[in-house]
């Protein structure tokens, strides 16, 4: 069972940034409004994500670390309409199998007499708890010494600096799509980023600036387009201004970041239609459509999707962007 978890971990958990991704996704699924992230040595030594979400009941703490024990999908029909970021019940057990993990959680209770409970796991084996702990409502997951028991994998880790850059990119991807969630990020004790709740246009611009830089925040065009069941929103930088930075491409389908050839092609075509051949268009775009029109049940570490009506999706995006780029600044 431990070996299976270690193998599964190899598929999902490649580096510290993959741990950060899974932990933040769990916090978002738990409905958090505030994230507190502390990293040490690029996440190789320590990663801690604290949220103010719904918490995990005492009797389900150990279960959360058991393979395929997700609380998010209860029957097969649910899989057709997944709205949470996680649904496999694989991430926490996988991380626990290749690190020293501590889980502390507390659920809200009206009487205010409840307490937090903590559980520690080393290399997939329970090492401590559950025992009472001090923690506000919500959950903290601390992951230390990633890959300490799988030296072959540890060897592939890069420098703390590189690993931290990957973590920042992961946070950027997730927090661009969750403006209502505030976030603090510390690295080796130093405050790196503090994102406030972005609940109006000004604070949204501010978040864009913090995550993507002033040029993008100031010069991007707001996109908002609806056709039938398809809705596209977000920002695109006019092609003439786009920097050659492949990192400035963020496309979300129903809130989930994807990297998809069909979508990339539609965007490239839109730019070409406007007589620009920008190699690296810069955009943050959100496509919303009925969950049964898209298949997200693909490998968790890849970012692929399959659309039922792919031609229609392609043409909608292309036309929406062409129209917006032609308008320019409003
Ligand atoms: P999945 O997200 O696919 O369900 P995970 O292994 O990531 O599986 O998490 C297992 C379970 O642990 C989740 O289904 C959820 O019930 C619980 N859980 C994990 N992290 C949190 C959190 N931050 N807040 C509340 N519950 C959590
Ligand atoms: Mg998860």
UniProtKB/TrEMBL annotation:
Belongs to the DNA mismatch repair MutL/HexB family. This is DNA mismatch repair protein MutL. This protein is involved in the repair of mismatches in DNA. It is required for dam-dependent methyl-directed DNA mismatch repair. May act as a 'molecular matchmaker', a protein that promotes the formation of a stable complex between two or more DNA-binding proteins in an ATP-dependent manner without itself being part of a final effector complex. The keyword Transferase does not apply. The keyword Transmembrane helix does not apply. The chain holds residues 10 to 339 of 610 of the full protein. It comes from the Bacteria. Residues 208-326 form the DNA mismatch repair protein S5 domain. GO terms for molecular function: ATP binding; ATP hydrolysis activity; ATP-dependent DNA damage sensor activity; endonuclease activity; mismatched DNA binding. Keywords: DNA damage, DNA repair, Endonuclease, Hydrolase, Nuclease. It comes from Caldichromatium japonicum. One of its GO terms (biological process) is mismatch repair. GO terms for cellular component: mismatch repair complex.
